[in-house]
Amino acid sequence: MTKRVGYRDWRWLALWWHNFFLLWSTIDGQTRYTISEELKQGSVVGNLAKDLGLGLSEFFDRKLHVASEAGKQYFNVDAGKGELVVNERIDRETLCGQSASCVLPLQVVIENPLQLHRIEVEIRDINDNSPSFITKELTVKIAESTVAGTRFPLESAEDPDVGTCRWK
């Protein structure tokens, strides 16, 4: 015995497909940029116009907004060129601590018609901090009978860029 699909069932199915395609055109894929920490203000991260497939005139006419989920507005959009630029210097250690990866998620909102784009900016560490030991000087006493090639472990060093390091 087969079940017939009634008018009401078709209406729900049509409504579901309509909403699916509406959301499909509203939320697009993800764009990811990678930059080094502590770039100067005004440094270009990437070309949003090109990467989002928009013309430069659309940037101004459609009221493009960039919102950061980090709370601070680290990036701005240069509407004249369609580029995402650094708004203020980013210190990776302050933002992400000792985490292996540091990614800032951004939301790009474009109006008329509404489009949402998720952008991620990965902040790469630059080695701007040198490691430091607790003691400045270490005296190692080695006996004459020590075999050549023997290793002597040193204390751990603290490097603000990577955490605690073991030096050999």
What does this 3D model show about the protein?
The chain has four helices and nine strands, in the order H-E-E-H-H-E-E-E-H-E-E-E-E. It is of the alpha+beta class and 168 residues long. The chain is elongated. The protein has two domains: 97 residues, Cadherins (Immunoglobulin-like, Sandwich); 40 residues, no CATH class. The chain has a four-stranded mixed sheet with strand order 1-7-6-3. A three-stranded antiparallel sheet has the order 2-5-4. The mean pLDDT is 77. It is a single-pass membrane protein. It is found in: Membrane. It holds the Pfam family Cadherin_2. One of its GO terms (molecular function) is calcium ion binding.
- What fraction, in percent, of the residue positions are helical? 10-25%
How many distinct beta strands? Answer: 9
What low-confidence regions span 5 or more consecutive residues with pLDDT below 50?
A: none
Distance N to C terminus: 78 Å
CATH topology of the largest domain: Immunoglobulin-like
Major β-sheet, in short? Answer: 4 strands, mixed
The tally of helices reads: 4
Average residue-wise pLDDT: 77
Q: From N to C, what is the helix and strand string?
A: HEEHHEEEHEEEE
**Class of secondary structure makeup:** alpha+beta
Number of domains: 2
CATH architecture of the largest domain, by name, is Sandwich
Shape: elongated
Radius of gyration equals 27 Å
Main location: membrane
Protein name: Cadherin domain-containing protein
Keywords: Calcium, Cell adhesion, Glycoprotein, Membrane, Repeat, Signal, Transmembrane, Transmembrane helix
GO molecular function, one term: calcium ion binding
